[in-house]
Automatic annotation (TrEMBL):
Annotated InterPro entries: DprA, DrpA_SLOG
Sequence similarity: Belongs to the DprA/Smf family.
Pfam families xrefs: DNA_processg_A (PF02481)
BP-aspect Gene Ontology terms: DNA-mediated transformation
Natural source organism: Paractinoplanes toevensis
Gene3D superfamilies documented for this protein: 3.40.50.450
UniProt name for this protein: Smf/DprA SLOG domain-containing protein
Chain ranges of the Smf/DprA SLOG domain: 96-289
Length: 324
């Protein structure tokens, strides 16, 4: 397929190259170049982006870089999704994300409108992986799309289990979608691309550097109606996803673990601070989501609507209208 010369797509593709890294001086106002204003119509957004970019050397450089990235993506079977496209997850809090790169089904709105993020430590224990698998399978069978990272530990365990459910998961990559990964992660990535979607905010060619890992963790908290943290440390990096979910007005849940294990200290901190609701399995997560919907949380109302409550025993039907 030939890549068109749409200037907005080229500019947004180029701006995604600088996410998770220090931009050059001439792009110090990076966020202002693409930041979305709530309620802004797609056409108005396109017009404003082009106006802010302007003309001159900076605009020319961005247009050239963006087209190059799009051509590389096209060769690798990777689609570019921008605001206004069919499938853009408009329900998610993605005001600071210029675009998403997708392998698989680009209709992310349909996949993510009823979704829950489940994430945790890459250095997971057996208990953490077992609970992650239980949660991933249970939520998927209830009709929720599990969103998790393409990474080892808790995320890999929840992804593998969710693939065995009736609703395949969506995986978020911490680098370019053409970047190599270990055998287990590569298999998960390929399954996501064929059954659902593998997505990234970063264009092809981007390595998985630490700042991009952090950006990916923040994105995980913004995509779904709720975030479930399983086995996470109390370091700032360990709680990035929970913090992003809270700031986006999403429900946050955390699973408790052994009190002497540092791997679970972040979960314990979230629960103790009242920043997360304690959950011990998929039914508890669904109950928490139901409660958030009853309280009128818009993301929870949308996510809980239409769930297969028969596949999740003990869960009551969603309320017809949010309770004030």
């Amino acid at each position: 397929m030939t890549v068109d010369d749409d200037p907005v797509r080229n500019v947004l593709a180029a701006l995604s190259y600088y996410l998770g890294k220090h931009p050059p001086e001439h792009l110090a106002d990076l966020e202002k170049l693409h930041h979305y204003r709530p309620g802004e119509a797609p056409r108005a957004y396109r017009t404003r982006v082009l106006k802010v970019i302007g003309a001159g050397q900076r605009a020319a450089a961005l247009l050239t870089l963006g087209r190059s990235l799009r051509e590389r993506a096209d060769e690798a079977g990777i689609a570019l999704l921008i605001r206004g496209d069919t499938g853009w997850p408009g329900h998610a809090d993605l005001g600071q994300v210029p675009c998403l790169w997708v392998r698989g089904n680009p209709n992310l709105h349909a996949a993510l409108i009823r979704s829950v993020t489940v994430t945790g430590s890459r250095a997971a224990s057996d208990d953490g992986r077992m609970l992650a698998a239980e949660v991933g399978l249970g939520l998927g069978n209830a009709g929720l799309t599990v969103v998790t990272g393409l990474s080892a530990g808790v995320d890999a365990a929840v992804a593998a289990a969710a693939f065995d459910s009736t609703t395949p998961p969506v995986l978020v990559h911490p680098g370019g979608l053409d970047q190599p990964a270990g055998l287990t992660l590569r298999n998960l990535a390929d399954r996501a691309a064929s059954m659902s979607a593998l997505i990234s905010p970063f264009p092809p060619g981007c390595d998985r550097i630490s700042r991009r890992w952090d950006y990916r963790s923040v994105l995980l908290g913004m995509l779904s109606a709720a975030t479930v943290v399983i086995e996470a440390s109390s370091t700032p990096q360990g709680l990035l996803t929970a913090r992003a979910a809270t700031e986006s007005g999403r429900l946050v849940c955390a699973a408790p673990g052994p009190v002497r294990s540092g791997l679970w200290s972040g979960c314990h901190q979230l629960i103790a601070d009242g920043a997360a609701q304690l959950v011990t399995g998929p039914s508890a997560v669904l109950d928490a989501l139901h409660g958030a919907a009853q309280r009128g949380n818009p993301a929870a109302v949308a996510a809980f609507s239409g769930l297969d409550t028969e596949a999740a025993p003990g869960i009551r039907p969603a309320p017809a209208e949010p309770t004030p």
